[in-house]
Amino acid sequence: MISKTKAARTGRAVAFLAGLAVAGTVAAQTVSDNSVPSTGLDIPANMQIFGKVDPNVRKPTAIVNDSVITGTDVDQRVALIVSANELKLSAEDRDRLKLQILRQLIDETLQIQEAKTSDITVTQPEITQSFDRVSRNFKRSPAEMRTYLRSVGSSERSLKRQIEGELAWQRYLRRKVEPNVNVSDEEVQGILDRIKASKGMDEFHVSEIYLSATPERAQQVNATMRQMIEKIQKGEAPFEYFARNSSEASTRAVGGDLGWVRAAQLPDSLAAAATSMQVGQVAGPIEVPGGFSILYLVDKRQVLTADPRDARLALKQLTVRFPAGTTQAGATARAAEFAKAVQTIQGCGGVAKIAGDIGAEVVDSDAVSIRDLPPALQEIMLKLQVGQATPPFGSAQDGVRALVVCGRDDPRNGDLPQAEAIQRQMEQTRVNLRAQTLLRDLRRDAVIDYR
């Protein structure tokens, strides 16, 4: 089991990136006739590769239609992503990430350039305002954010560059694409009818990593995916990193997210895995047509049926922080004292006194959905009554905590989504598809000089 993915602290500013396969030296390589895929290209079945291809020999710099991307630009973006997402990358993984960051910076440059051709610009005050908002997401002031960025090897300029690219592209899409996207009433009604027909069925919010595999490569691919799972479970890199970096599925651009699906919409092997998984669990490698998949169960529910995990709670959180250098044994002993004190709580009215006795901090939160808590806490909160507290949880580094339930608003039976919400979702999906096509065309027509 792994905990739910942390919310992106900088929006897409710290999004993980698609990967790159790096080819080594090849003297001569043959491929059998029946292993050549149908690509529409004129590629000889019995081909020979001459020389070598190694993108790592290039410096990570480029000139994109006269706009320069430097090695420093790449290094600072890499530093931000690695730090913000607490990645533990090998030297090889870092090199791959650098090359992908270069491609991301090229895309940003093309997006900004295309927006400017339509007289769309983003002003410095707007960029600064967005930078300040990102800083608040990091729970820092703008000045503290600048210091943090420098400390991890990034910079304010690097983050503001990405902010500018995102804002410029969003405005371009709103002006040039969204007015031409339409969803009919009949399409929306069709979605609503299908939802009604599915009432009571299980739905799964899943993410997937897919790698193709011929029979000859099946063992190798299987071993590669097991290594991915091991790194995910050890916390060395989140699921989304491998989904964007390695997956061959079309969902790699969104971290492997398949959204909400029913079992009937998945291949049989994935459906069987999803129905037996717990929320937060990673399963695989799972054999599917053409290769293998790793599945991550983000959430599950029943269509148009109230889910107890949608209950909204009023909570008080008690926290006791440990001094720096606290050993595991010391933390365990302190946690035991904390647990004993928490067991004496009789309703939220007594929290303040207990907190004063043990030197705990108290934080109130009046609208927490059980679904938004880590899976382990979800199971506990479902069983608690108003006035009861969770067992202590935490670590030697972070201290120990407990949650006390002060109120609960149980969910009503599931309601049909509003037609307007479905229409907006469908329109946004079509805008995103048009945006992908536009960006592909911009890449095709660009003059890019790699240095």
Automatic annotation (TrEMBL):
GO terms for molecular function: peptidyl-prolyl cis-trans isomerase activity. The keyword Chaperone applies. Residues 201-299 form the PpiC domain. InterPro entries: OMP_Chaperone_SurA, PPIase_dom_sf, PPIase_PpiC, SurA_N, Trigger_fact/SurA_dom_sf. It comes from the Bacteria. Keywords: Chaperone, Isomerase, Periplasm, Rotamase, Signal. PROSITE patterns: PPIC_PPIASE_2. Residues 1-28 form the signal peptide. This is Parvulin-like PPIase. It comes from Sphingomonas alpina. The lineage of its organism: Bacteria, Pseudomonadati, Pseudomonadota, Alphaproteobacteria, Sphingomonadales.
